[in-house]
Amino acid sequence: MLTRPLWLTAFLCFIPFVFSTANASEPASVNRRVDSGLQELKSDIAHLLRDMQTLDYQILSAGGPVLNIFLDARNVRLNGLQQIRVDLDDKTIFRLNPTSSQLTALIESGGATLLQRGIEAGTHRLAVTLDQDTADLAFEGSEGDILMDVSIEGTNKRRKVSIHSASLTERPEQLLRTAYYDFLNRDYLSALLQLMVGRHMGWINPDISSLDDQLAQIRLAYGLYDEAFVYLQNHTGMPSQQQWLPDREIWLRLAQHYFDIEDNERSLFSLQQINVPSLPDQLEESRQLLELRLLTRQDRFAEALQNLNVSLRQSGHSLLWRYNVAVFLLKNGHKDKGLEILEKLVSTKISGRDPIAKGLKELSSLILSRYAYKDKNYPLAAQYTVKIWSDSPYYHTAQLLLGKSVLAQGKTEAGVQEWQRIARDLMDESVQEANLHIPQAFLMAGKTAQAENAFGESIRLMKMGLEQLGVLYHNLEQGRYLDRVLAGEPIPGYGGLLLAQLSEPSLLQTIQAVHDTEDLENTLQQWRERMTMWSGKVSGYPDPAVKSRFMQRIEQQSKRHAVLLQQARKLKQDLIDEVRDELLMETRHQQKRLRKNLARSYYGLASLHDQQLSQGTQ
C-alpha cells in the first residue's frame, strides 16, 4: 500500500508555484465523495471480518481443541534470526523467514501469536525451532483453548528456547502485543481485528480504558479518520495507557486529512490539540506549514504572518520548511524576505545523495532566476538557471529562462543555442515556448532565412507532437498505460508530459485510494477461500442441529461478503475511471495548447512570407 508522508504533502503543495505566477491558487482538494466512500467500505469490511473471524474460531472450537502458540520476545535479542518453524506431531504447520522489520516489530511489541489452529483431541507433541535451537513439549489436547507460550532466553549465539502451557488469563496481554506487532508492521487491518475480535469474544475486558485509545490509533492509521476523530475529540487531554502513536502525530495526521478534504473546522480543531515543543522538529515544521495554509485559506493572513514571524526567530529549520515558508511569503507579497530565505537555501551545502534537498535547491534557484529576470537583472537570472542540472525535472523551464536572459543581453545566437538544447521534447510547455521564441529571435537579429527555417522546424515538431498526443489519448481511452500510472511509472515516450498532473495531491490521493481498495478486494478474496473450507468442515459434524446452525451462519456471512466484494470492485473501478478521466482531461489540455502554439507558428511564418512578398513588390 502506498502512503504519502507529511513532508511529501507539504512539498507537493507548492510545486505548482514554479510553473505559474506568485499568485498560484491552492491545489484542488481531495474529492470528499471518494474519501467518504472509502472510509465507509473500510469500516464495513472491518466489521464483516470481525464476525467472520469470530465464526472461524467457533467452527474450529466446535470440532475439537484449538491450539494457540504465542512467541514471547521480551528482553531477548533476535537480530539475525533466519527462521521460525513450528512442528506438530512431526509435521510442519508454520514457517516464517522473518524480515528485519518483522524482527524489530517482534522485539518492540514483546511478541506475537504465531498461529491459531484446530487439532484433534488426544496426545500431541509440539516442537518450535528458531534456527538451530529447538524446544519440544508433549501435551494432552481436550476441549477448549490450549495456549502455548514460547519463550527465549540468552543471546543469538547461545539461545535457549522453551515451551510452557499458558493460562487463559494471559490471553488479553497476548492479543494486545500481537495487535501492536501487526501495527508496527503496518498491517493495520489485522491489528484492528485482533482487538475487535478480542473484545467481541470477551477475551479482552471491554472496560479496559486503554483499549479504546489503542483502537482509535489503529483506526487512524488504517484510514478510518472520522471514527478516530469522533472518539479522540471526546477524549482530549486523557493520556493513553499505551501510546502507539505520539499525540502530536495523531492530531497532525487528522489535521492534514481534513485540510485535504477542505473540512477546515476539523482541521483547525486538530491543530489546536498539538502541544508545541520548545525546539522545532519535523512534526512541528509540518504543523506550522499546515497552519499557515489553513489560516490563509480562511482569510486570516495577518494571524498567519504573526505566527510565522515567531517561527522565523527559531533556528535549526529544515530546507523543506525554509523553502515552503519562502514561497508562502512570495505568494503573499513579502518579496524581500522570501527571496532572502531562498538565497540562503541555495547556498546551503547538502549531501549529493539527498534528492529532496537537491530538488529544493533547484526550485529555489528557478524562483530566484524568475524574480531576477522580472527585475531586468539578466546576468543574475542566467547565473541562477545554470545551477539546475540537465537531469532535473525543472531543466526545461530553466533553459527557457536562460535563453531569454541571454537574449535580453543582446546575445541572439547564444540564447537560441540554449533553447535548441531542449527543442525536441514537444510534450513540455517550456519547450513549446522555446520553439516559438527561436524564429522570433532570428527575426529580431534580421536573419530572415534562419527565421523561416526555424518556423518550419517548429511547425514540423508541433505537428509530430499532436500526432503523439492523439495516439496517447486513444490509448488512455482504451485503458492502456493506467497500470503504469497507478504503479507510479512514467508513460514511455512521453517524457514529462503528465508530471505536473501526477504531482497534484488530489490525483495522488485518488491513486492511493485505488491501491487501498485493491488491498481490501484481495483480503475479501482470501476469505472466500476460507468460507469454502468452513463448509467442508461443518458438513462432517455429526450433530444435525449444530451443522444446520453453522451452515445458516456461513450463508449469512457469505451474502454480506458477496455484497462488500462487489462494492469494493465497483469503487476500485470508479476510482480507476476517475484517474483515467483526469489524464484524458490533461491530454486534451495539452492538445489544445499545442494547437494554439502551432497556429502561432503558422501565423508567424505567414507574416514573414507576407513581409517578403511586400518587400519584393516594392
Average pLDDT, rounded to a whole number, is: 86
Task: Please state the overall shape, judged from the principal axes of the Cα atoms.
Answer: elongated
Alpha plus pi helix count: 24
Rg is 31 Å
Which runs of at least 5 residues are low in confidence (pLDDT < 50)?
1-29
Please state roughly what percent of the residues sit in beta strands, choosing from under 5%, 5-15%, 15-25%, 25-35%, 35-45% or over 45%: 5-15%
Distance from N terminus to C terminus (CA atoms, Å) equals 72 Å
* Major β-sheet annotation: 4 strands, mixed
Please give the share of residues in helix.
Answer: 55-70%
Number of strands: 8
**Secondary structure category:** alpha+beta
The strand order across the widest sheet is 4-1-7-8
Overview in brief:
The chain is of the alpha+beta class and 618 residues long. Helix content is 64%, strand content 10%. Among the domains are: 102 residues, Immunoglobulin-like (Sandwich), CATH 2.60.40; 196 residues, no CATH class.
From the structure above, extract its key features.
single chain, 618 residues, alpha+beta, Immunoglobulin-like, four-stranded mixed β-sheet, 64% helix, elongated, disordered N terminus
Describe this structure in words.
There is one protein chain. By secondary structure, the chain is α+β, with helices and mostly antiparallel strands. Among the domains are: 65-166, Immunoglobulin-like (Sandwich), CATH 2.60.40; 423-618, no CATH class. Helices cover 64% and strands 10% of the residues. The chain has helices spanning 6-13, 16-19, 32-62, 100-109, 171-184, 188-200, 209-222, 225-233, 247-260, 264-272, 282-297, 301-312, 319-331, 335-346, 355-374, 378-385, 395-408, 412-420, 429-444, 448-477, 482-486, 499-502, 505-538, 544-617; strands at residues 66-72, 84-88, 91-96, 111-118, 122-130, 133-141, 145-154, 159-166. Strand 7 and strand 8 form a beta hairpin. Helix 4 runs antiparallel to helix 5 (171-184) and helix 5 (171-184) packs antiparallel against helix 6 (188-200). The N and C termini lie far apart (72 Å).
